[in-house]
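Record type: monomer structure entry
Structure origin: computed from sequence
Chain ID: A
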Amino acid sequence: MQEAVLEFLSKRHSTPISALAAPGPDEDQLQLMLKLAARVPDHGRLTPWRFIIYRGDARKKVGQLLADRLEQLEGPLTEARKEQELKRFDRAPLVVGVVSSPVEHPRIPEWEMFLSAGAAAMNLCHAANAMGFASNWITNWYANEEEGRRLLGVAPHERVAGFVHIGTSQTVVPERPRADMEAKVSEYQGPWNE
């Protein structure tokens, strides 16, 4: 069992959103994915995150809202740019917004709550992949723009940890170069010195 888990983790990758297609998860599969996604470190058991489900016609509505908002920000869009925005949430059969929804607490900092939301997004990707689906976790311009977040159902005090696009892969994703671990791992040598 441990070897299978290690093998699974060693092959983790993101599938390009353009390669995600139907079928997506059914309702029971989605509920299981979300339940597994919620099994994350959560200092104080605050559950400082939530999920927003974008599927069916909601994906097209979101695309239109985003295209309209981007035109307000940048002026008239080219047809290609407008089409890109219209299809933002319509490329995969399911998109799950993972939202950091901090809870006031006298000792637990907000950044820890944001990390918990990020862990939920990663768990969601793992759960989707373990169930045979492909996924891609992104943010994009609308995650960092106040009105964009509002249009996507995110409250003013919340921030987007990511949008996880889930579907069935239509391609084999080639392995990409990974981090040079020797350059990324060090033994503690004492306080940081310039």
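Annotation 1: Strands lie at 20-21, 49-55, 94-100, 134-138, 159-169.
Annotation 2: The two ends are 45 Å apart (CA to CA).
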